[in-house]
Amino acid sequence: MIKILAIDDREDNLVVIQAMLKTFLPGCSVTTASSGPEGIEKARRDCPDTILLDIKMPRMDGFETCQRLRSDPLTRHVPIILLTAISNSPANRKMGLEAGADAFMAKPIDEGELIAQVQAMLRIKKSEDKLRHERDILEKLVQERTIELRESLQGVERLLEQTIQVLANTVETKDPYTAGHQQRTAHIATSIASAMELDPSVQKAIYMAAMIHDIGKINIPSEILNKPGKINDTEFSLIKEHPVIGCQIIQPIDFPWPIDTIILQHHERLDGSGYPHGISEGEILLESKILGVSDVMEAMWSHRPYRAAKSIQDTINELENFKGIRYDPEVVDVALGLFRQGRISAEKVTLTNV
């Protein structure tokens, strides 16, 4: 049974929400709470599938309640929709996003929007629960096989590749518009690395990092990743944190390559104009420079919710105009050379062996 928790200090609002949900989602169970502390207690006890949370409440407002729910291991994965009668300003949205909210709704509540938002959150919860379950199974498998594979380098690498694939699938479930982006970027990046005749271990590192270079986006609200309109400065500032988040996710895994650093630096640019730290040419790993160019190529060729795919000529212009400024000149020359030889296809973004 679907379980929904509504938290609001006004009884009449809770009655309306309960009636709407019971009417349009008759199979659901709706629990109510009239304060933040009570809501947190019931969320911990009942493990709801979605939480509807009012912002303006006495003692503990919705922002603080949301933060506490997100910091609790028992409730951190539950989707939260903030309900607000106050100004839906960029500042308030920023506070909500930083607190961990997944979506926003304005009062008075429109029943159609409420049901649509709840159903969207339920889909996200179901997908993420499935991924966590699969990850738990994989972790158990890793534990069971570690002793057997300890002496086998090939076995260890295969295990790491399975971990990489699970992490890659996690991002694509969160952000369906970029499904396949990481894999295609990995093919481009390893093709460039091979053409540059880099050591096989470096090529492996580039492949592994490229396959999960956007893993940090799992911490970005879905409504931003899938937003069809223009992304504002506040939202973009959150998106720019994904290399840092990705690096933090990967650091505990004992890779034989600097995967965490490659991911951290893949949006850095030679002239220091990149993010998250604005470092420049001499501080950026070659692997990150290759991944950065590959990411730009694949992203420009692909459709996004906020823009149509760019043309081939736009992509060529971007790389040639900023060669030696943003992008490593040797990497750009090799990438464009592969493209002109037909070894990278813009139509399907597939590659032949280099």
Write the layout of secondary structure elements.
Elements: E1 3-7, H1 11-24, E2 29-33, H2 36-46, E3 50-54, H3 62-71, E4 80-84, H4 90-99, E5 103-106, H5 111-149, H6 153-174, H7 181-195, H8 200-211, H9 222-225, H10 233-239, H11 242-250, H12 259-265, H13 286-301, H14 312-321, H15 329-340
Report what the structure shows.
It is a single chain. Helices cover 56% and strands 7% of the residues. It is of the alpha/beta class and 354 residues long. The protein has 2 domains: 3-123, Rossmann fold (3-Layer(aba) Sandwich); 152-340, Orthogonal Bundle (Hypothetical protein af1432). The chain has a 5-stranded parallel β-sheet with strand order 2-1-3-4-5, with helices on both faces. α8 packs across α12 (259-265). The protein is elongated, with a radius of gyration of 23 Å.
Sum up the structure in keywords.
354 residues; Hypothetical protein af1432; 2 domains
Helix content: 55-70%
DSSP helical segment count: 15
CATH architecture of the largest domain: Orthogonal Bundle
Q: Tell me how many strands there are.
A: 5
